[in-house]
Amino acid sequence: MGTQRDRCHAHEATHRDWDSVARRRLRRAAVPPGTPAAESSQAVQLGGPPSGAGTLNADGGEIQPADPSKFYKEPGYSPYAGRRYPERPYFGDEHVHTAWSVDAGGSGATLGPEEATRFARGEEVTSTSGQPVKLGQPLDWVAITDHPT
C-alpha cells in the first residue's frame, strides 16, 4: 500500500511525466524560429480555426422559414393543422390517491377509488372530514394512481 509520502511522490512523478509529454508535443507543433509568427507570440494554436461555438457570433446565418412543400408529400392529413388554439381543452386530475394507497390512507384519507371516481364525475360524496362535497363542474378525466407501498 505504501505510506502517504510514497503516494505523494508517485502522484508528483505522474504529473511530471505528463508535463514532459505535453512540452514535447508543444515543441513539435511550435512554429520554427525566424518566422514572423514565432517572433510575435509563443502561443501555439492546436486544432482547426475557432468555430465561435458558445458565442453570440456562432450562428451568423439567417433564419429561413420552413417550407412545408419540402417535407409534406400528402397535404391535409391532419384535421388540426393550422389551428392556433385548442378547440376543446380537457380538464382532469392525473394523480389521485385514495385510501387504498398507503401514503394517502396513512394520512387519513377515507375515500376509496369508487368514491373518487364518483366525485370526478360531479357526484356529491362525503369527504374525509365528514362534510358533503361536490365539484362545480365534472372533470373530463381522472387517473386514480393507487399503489400498495
Task: Give a structural overview.
The protein has four helices and four strands. It is of the alpha+beta class and 149 residues long. Among the domains are: 4-40; 92-144, no CATH class. Strands 1-4 form a two-stranded parallel sheet. Strands 2-3 form a two-stranded antiparallel sheet. The model has no long low-confidence stretch (mean pLDDT 75).
Mean pLDDT: 75
Helix segment count?
A: 4
Shape, per Cα inertia axes: elongated
Compute the number of strand runs: 4
Give the fraction of residues assigned to helices.
25-40%
- Helical/strand content category: alpha+beta
Q: Name the beta content range.
A: 5-15%
- Compute the CA-based radius of gyration: 35 Å
Physical arrangement of strands within the biggest beta sheet: 1-4
Q: Uncertain runs with pLDDT below 50, 5 residues or more?
A: none
Distance between the termini: 46 Å
**N-to-C order of helices and strands:** HHEHHEEE
| Major sheet summary line | 2 strands, parallel
Defining key terms:
149 residues, alpha+beta, two-stranded parallel ribbon, two-stranded antiparallel sheet, 9% strand
Briefly, what is this?
With 149 residues, the chain is of the alpha+beta class. Among the domains are: 4-40; 92-144, no CATH class. It has four helices and four strands; from the N terminus they run ααβααβββ.
